[in-house]
Amino acid sequence: MRVLIAGGGTGGHLFPGIAVAEEVTTRDTRNEVLFVGTDRGLEARVVPAYGWPLEVIQVQGLKGKGVGGLLRSLMQLPRALADSIRILRRWQPDVVLGVGGYASGPVVLAAWLLRLPTAVQEQNALPGLTNRILGMFVSRVFVAFEEARASFPVDKVVLIGNPIRRKLMDNYLSGSVSHAHFTVLVVGGSLGARGLNQRVIEALPHLADLKDVLRFVHQTGKTSIDEVRAGYEAAGIQGEVVEFIDDMSAAYETAELVVCRAGATTLAELTVCKKASILVPFPHATDNHQEVNAKALVEEGAAVMFREAELTGERLAEEIRALYQDPARRKKMEKRASRLGRPEAAKELADVCVELMQAAWGPKGREREAEGEARS
Question: Looking at the structure, do residues 207 and 143 belong to the same domain, yes or no?
Answer without folding.
Answer: no
